[in-house]
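Q: Sequence in, structure out?
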Amino acid sequence: MSKKPILTQYTIRKQGLKAPLTIALAADIHERNADDILELIKSSKPDIIAVAGDTLERHTDDVHTYYDHFSIGHKIFSEVAMRASHLLRFLFDRKNYPDEENSYRFLRNAAELAPVYMSLGNHEGRLNEKDYEFIKENGIHLLDNSDETAVINNQEIRIGGLSTVRDGKWFRSFAKKDGFKILLNHHPEYYDGMISESDVDLVLSGHVHGGQVRIFGKGLISPAVGLFPKYFWGVYDNRLVVSAGCSNPVSIPRINNPREAVIIKLET
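A: Exactly. Output:
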């Protein structure tokens, strides 16, 4: 099985745009080496680079509050799966440990290619002082339950980031704003309901790692979502784009599911 990443490109037609827009999507770097992902992104000359969560490993108890709506069985499954993965990695895959310098290098080099917008995932409960200094020094746009307006190709685009510990009040305010709206949302399982019923034009996600193992084109498992996740990879409803992720942070191999860089070409 090849460990080389692939470049996946989607073309999506959208009303409300005045000019075409090219977006690179990277998710789930998990402090692993993603230099090869960035090389693929570079060749597409994106207008912006969206980094949709789990870039850094900054665990706190707060990030687990998003499990509250899961059943007891689902919570037990998630906890057992994650602990088993950590044990297997310790026993058999010790070289695959995280190093924050990998993520810093990716973000630094990405920011030299295009404006970088970064949201937070379940592995980023609380960034530290060094992270904030790095983000400021390199001009990274951190979107933590917040949004900004960008001018790209002579048009205004609103870009927001919904964090793992989500702020519903902020999201509802963002969704009601005028103009074309892009949401970075690490968790595709958040899409049903609040997001799907909103006027957000494009949602960029990761988290599920493509289902880890794909059988007959269907993702098999996600420790946080469960067996056969509904949204695991691809484009849904012509607006939810789910990346298979930039790394493999667990010892279980990715089967029929290569790491990927995603390019989204929005057309009018």
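The first strand starts at residue 6 and ends at 13.
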